[in-house]
Amino acid sequence: MPELPEVEALRAFLDTHLVGKEIARVLPVAISVLKTYDPPLSAVEGAEVTAVGRHGKFLDLTTSGTAGELHLLVHLARAGWLRWQDPLPSGPPKPGRGPLALRTALTGGDGFDLTEAGTTKRLAVHLVHDPQEVPGVARLGPDPLAEDFGPAEFAALLAGEHRQIKGALRDQSLLAGIGNAYSDEILHAAKMSPFKPTQNLTPEETTALYTAMRTTLREAVDRSHGLAAGRLKAEKKSGLRVHGKAGEPCPVCGDTLREVSFSDSALQYCPTCQTGGKILADRRMSKLLK
Q1: What is the spatial order of strands in the sheet that 68-75 belongs to?
Q2: In what helix (H) or strand (E) does residue 211 lie, and over which residues does it extend?
Q3: Which residues are registered as beta bridge partners of 53?
Q4: pLDDT tens by residue, 210-253
């Protein structure tokens, strides 16, 4: 799943390649991709892209045209991606069982496709007057890389929480943009168990977690900066230290990285670095083995 660093890198890529250009057509291919119908997608035909922003994991393409300012918001979900094409294939895209979900064609002949792998279709596109009209944007918590989000703000955010820290980091209404992969990376950097209760964090641990979060995300953004959209997935995978690497040696201590599996996801961690050498039970309501 694309998370904050990848979506931020896509935002920067599109800011360079898209801003100032005119949209010819936006063509939905998969029925499930479009979540709004008023205004219609035809409202952005002939409009200029004036800015590309980000709200958590949402991309925000601001357009200006005869319909006024509109926002085309994209959430790539778990298996979605953006593929820039110059030039775009000739002829209209054909609906079918392939990964293509939506095509945005520019008047210059270039543009981008939104694709989604697998059978579970969650990629979402909204066309709205205000990003806050999209429920997923309206409920977002603060951006963890925002300049005005410091250690004190982070501590205040966690002060009222009573749950495992892994779940807190992934909650988009608490913090915007962190998902399964980078929460594993952050907790490994902070030397913290994913199941540590937030209410048990000491002030020193909270500060250490904040530092690990900012450093991990910023380094991932920096690694992705300037890369073409097609190279971002490989960069994410190569840059991860623990997530998706169960069975491999920990890059810090050399212990074998372990995994806890759930019904639709899994987390990875280092017992030596994060749980005092204890192995976490591999079941849905995992607790430290006695």
Answers
A1: 48-55, 58-65, 68-75, 124-128
A2: helix 203-224
A3: 60
A4: 999 999 999 999 988 776 677 777 777 788 999 999 999 999 99
